[in-house]
Amino acid sequence: MRKKEGLVRTAACLSGIFVCLVWLCLVLDGLGTGRSLMLYLMHRYAPSEQTGLPEEEYSDVCGMITGYLAGQSDTFQYTYEKGGREYTVFQEHEILHMKDVKGLFLLERRVLLFASVGLVITGLVLIRCRLGRPALQGIRDGGALVLCLLLVLTLMALFDFETFFTGFHRLFFTNNLWILNPRTDMLIRLMPETFFTAYAGILAGTFLPVPLACLIAPWCILKKKGN
Asked: What's the domain range around 180?
């Protein structure tokens, strides 16, 4: 019986982690492909007078970027006309960098598939075993683990966001194409550090309720039952 309870608690812990992972992937995908949100943040943190891009072009630029990240287009480039002259917005190294970024979104969707399958498998184990207390303890443990990791990452970002931001890029990119020059590169002018700081805050605020629920709900039920 003890061995069975241990199995259930482990499966429930994994199930809680998979729930959080599925939600994280959905939030990341939604934020990265959300045209309205990107447009709002660009207007707020990268106004036209700072970027040099006409304000009336912002909506279509955001549509191009989010469509590219969503896999609706294979081409990352934007051109517009002003005063009878055609302007091309992004340079070759910016296009190559965004190809790497798109690769991360493809990876995120694979992780989403993996986590979804894992959630189904662990869920079936829990349904079959039908042990309430170990299952609740496991889900609580999974939520606690995710929250601990999130707390560590948050503290790192709050302590030194620039170092955190640089470390993130060095971890996920195998080249230096992400190092852009705001004097010459439109991509970094449209998406400055403050833009990504805002994105990180929205991500944390949207994601946090799920691991909190995984921790607090089982804890409250166990406390009510006197366990």
From this structure: 2-219
What does the mean pLDDT of the chain come to? 92
Mean pLDDT in residue range 67-71: 96
Query: Do strands 85-88 and 79-82 pair parallel, antiparallel, or not at all (unpaired)?
Result: antiparallel
Interior angle at CA 160, CA 157 and CA 161, nearest 5: 55
CA distance linking residue 79 with residue 170, whole number of Å: 30
Q: Is the per-residue pLDDT at 67 higher than 70?
A: yes
- Work out the number of other CB atoms within 10 angstroms of the CB of residue 62: 22
Q: Where are the beta strands (DSSP E) in 74-186?
A: 79-82, 85-88
Number of domains forming the structure of the chain: 1
Q: Is residue 227 in a domain? A: no
Inter-residue contact 182 to 189 (CB < 8 Å): yes
136 and 7 Cβ atoms separated by less than 8 Å: no
Which region holds residue 185: left if phi is over 0, alpha if psi is between -120 and 50, else beta? beta
The model's pTM is 0.90
* Most distant CA pair in the chain, distance: 79
Nearest to 216 by CA among 122, 152, 147: 147
Tens of pLDDT, residues 147-172 = 999 899 888 888 887 888 888 888 88
